[in-house]
Design brief:
The structure holds 2 protein chains of 2 kinds. Chain A is an all-alpha fold. Chain A has a two-stranded antiparallel ribbon. Chain A starts with a helix and ends with a helix. The N terminus of chain A is likely disordered. Helix content of chain B is 79%, strand content 1%. The termini of chain B are far apart. The mean pLDDT of chain B is 87. Classes of the chains: A mainly alpha, B mainly alpha.
């Protein structure tokens, strides 16, 4: 028996008991354990079991109140946050807001060019992270078995990369893409920086998706003597497509939420971008700039935040749909 | 099957294998490249002044060659510690609520809410802090933009990460443990506190470490509510500036050794994160061996 099991046993033994109180949950409710209660009474120097019982019952009750209270508090604050932003933002939101360029530093006008810049940045980020991430995931899932040293090191370094603060990505992107590669503040530089940020998430999800493809598929392919390339492109990738798509959508969500990495890679310019080498302001950067640097910009900031939250919710719903419906259909063997 | 086609097949396989390996190794080396670049950009000022002066200089006047990052370090540490102090218990209780107290449908809804909260952009938190929280604190004790506001916003941002990690850990507790607890007639809270939480301890530790990393690295939300005054705060209501906020604020116009000094703080952050992530991995790995 392992060390932990010993620990468990010791902890379970002297614990309090709810003798037949119907308050515990449906999964855990069990009839009274009278002999145990009596043993406990003897050990504790004859304290009447009713007192002990009462104490245990009250502790359990208190814990339930605290747990429900904490959950309610968290949900309440979240609702407050959403309601405050939605209430202030809804006043400004309209179809014209989505299509017209900002005027008067964003105090009036809309977010048309900013949406275009955001989409371009996302496009650059997703294309480049899929181009590197998909083969990397194939390597991790198919060509490096769980124990391989190279696979382990790559995974570990991706974990570290996933934990890096976005501002550090911003510094890195500024030094590498803007300065060294001469892209200056541009949509391209911002998108590439975001690609670095999204890469670990996408690789992790794509790898999981490939691993989730039933082994029978590979065995059948091997029995037909298909080459690894054919197996991958004709069998594994199509089967893992929903997972890859879900990874892509989650990556887009992460990229859409990002601000700090973009402030000094893709820049602040709120004009309509003419090419990928132009500086373009992402939606999140717009929110930041309006609320911090423009007095009287709160309304526009809230409306933009509402648009951003709406986009993220749509993405979230899309992922949920992908993971339940599409995947279920694919794996019906 | 003729020889040329089989050779082409072998070539295709080799090409695929090579490409995949190259991509994986490239992705793995990205983090090394990143640290290298930060170090390269930070090198001039590190070389000229030595690392110690970032703690001993008098004040942060980077254009005059005085680079004391001390107040920012204190600000970052206090904000992160305060956020964890608040979010730790709340996140833990949220996870417990999801696994043991809520009816299944409510639990699913609550989990969805936590996921949504985890995916909410930091600017939105910052915006809410700026529009709602800071005026509220201002009424209590001016100026409003303060260490307290930073702690509250950070706590809110860190909480879902923590809750979701712990919740995953709690769900992975072997069913036999819970059945044994039920067979002993343990109450629900006793089962949670004496059986489930100890069994999920590695996930708990990993969650706290990951949350610490997030709290240290968060930039925009904190920048928007913390007041950004370079000083060691004397109370919760004093404005502070964190390392990350410092970078975001000054990077736009920093030149020469000022810019290099900002990269030094980025390097310090990156080092802290590497440490925390590896520690979390170590904590998680210990679970699997038990």
């Amino acid at each position: 028996m392992s060390r932990k099991d010993h620990g468990m046993r010791k902890r379970i033994m002297p614990a309090e008991h709810a003798e037949g109180r119907g308050r515990s949950g449906p999964t855990l409710r069990r009839p009274a354990a009278v002999p145990y209660g009596q043993a406990r009474q003897l050990r504790d120097g004859g304290e009447p079991s009713a007192v002990l019982l009462n104490r245990a019952f009250r502790a359990d009750r208190l814990a339930a109140v605290v747990v429900w209270g904490a959950a309610g508090l968290v949900a309440g604050v979240f609702a407050w946050l959403l309601a405050a932003v939605a209430f202030q933002g809804a006043a400004r939101l309209s179809l014209a807001f989505l299509t017209t360029p900002p005027a008067d530093a964003g105090r009036s006008g809309g977010i048309g060019p900013i949406l275009v810049s955001t989409l371009l940045i996302l496009g650059v980020a997703m294309v480049s992270s899929v181009a590197v991430g998909a083969p990397a995931a194939v390597f991790l899932a198919e060509f490096s078995h769980a124990g391989t040293r190279s696979g382990r090191w790559v995974r570990r370094s991706l974990d570290v990369l996933a934990g890096m603060p976005s501002i550090v990505f911003g510094l890195f992107g500024n030094a590498l893409f803007c300065k060294l590669l001469g892209l200056r503040f541009s949509i391209l530089a911002g998108g590439l920086t975001l690609a670095c940020m999204v890469l670990p998430l996408f690789i992790r999800l794509a790898e999981e998706g490939l691993r989730a493809v039933p082994t029978e598929y590979r065995q059948a392919a091997a029995a037909l003597s298909l080459s690894p390339t054919t197996t991958l492109f004709r069998i594994l990738l199509p089967a893992a497509l929903p997972a890859l798509a879900a990874g892509l959508v989650l990556g887009i969500g992460r990229a859409l939420a990002e601000t700090a990495a973009l402030v000094f890679t893709s820049g602040y310019v709120d004009r309509m971008p003419e090419s990928l080498h132009d500086s373009g302001r992402a939606l999140s950067v717009h929110i930041y700039d309006l609320s911090m640097n423009v007095s009287g910009g709160d309304g526009g900031a809230c409306a933009s935040a509402l648009v951003l939250i709406g986009l993220l919710l749509a993405l979230n719903g899309g992922t949920a749909w992908l993971t339940t419906h599409w995947r279920r259909k694919t794996y019906r063997v | 099957m003729g020889r040329p086609s089989s050779r082409r097949r072998a070539q295709a396989d080799a090409l695929l294998h090579g490409t995949a390996r190259l991509a994986a190794v490239g992705a793995g080396l990205l983090v090394v490249l990143m640290v290298l670049f930060l170090a390269l950009e930070a090198a001039p000022v590190l070389h000229a002044t030595g690392p110690l002066r970032f703690l001993t200089d008098r004040g942060w006047y980077p254009t005059q060659g005085r680079f004391n990052l001390g107040p920012m370090l204190v600000g970052t540490t206090l904000a992160a510690a305060g956020a964890l102090f608040l979010a730790g218990p709340l996140g833990l209780l949220s996870a417990v609520f999801c696994c043991f107290y809520a009816p299944p449908r409510l639990a699913a809804l609550y989990r969805r809410m936590l996921e949504l909260l985890a995916g909410t952009p930091s600017v939105v938190f910052g915006l809410w802090g700026l529009v709602v929280l800071v005026p509220l604190i201002n009424r209590l004790h001016p100026p409003g933009a303060s260490l307290l506001a930073a702690i509250l916003i950070l706590a809110l941002m860190v909480l879902p990460t923590l809750a979701l990690t712990v919740e995953a850990g709690l769900r992975a507790v072997p069913t036999e443990y819970l059945q044994a607890a039920a067979a002993l007639g343990l109450s629900r809270w006793t089962t949670v506190s004496q059986v489930a939480l100890p069994a999920a301890r590695p996930a708990l530790i990993a969650g706290v470490i990951l949350a610490t990393g997030r709290a240290l690295g968060e930039t925009m939300a904190v920048l928007m509510v913390c007041g950004n005054v370079v000083q060691v705060p004397r109370g919760l209501f004093d404005p502070v500036r964190t390392l990350t906020a410092n970078i975001a604020l000054e990077m736009a116009y920093a030149q020469g050794s000022h810019r290099a000094a900002l990269f030094v703080s980025g390097l310090a952050l990156a080092a802290a994160i590497v440490f925390f992530v590896l520690a979390a991995e170590f904590a998680e790995r210990r679970t699997r061996h038990v």
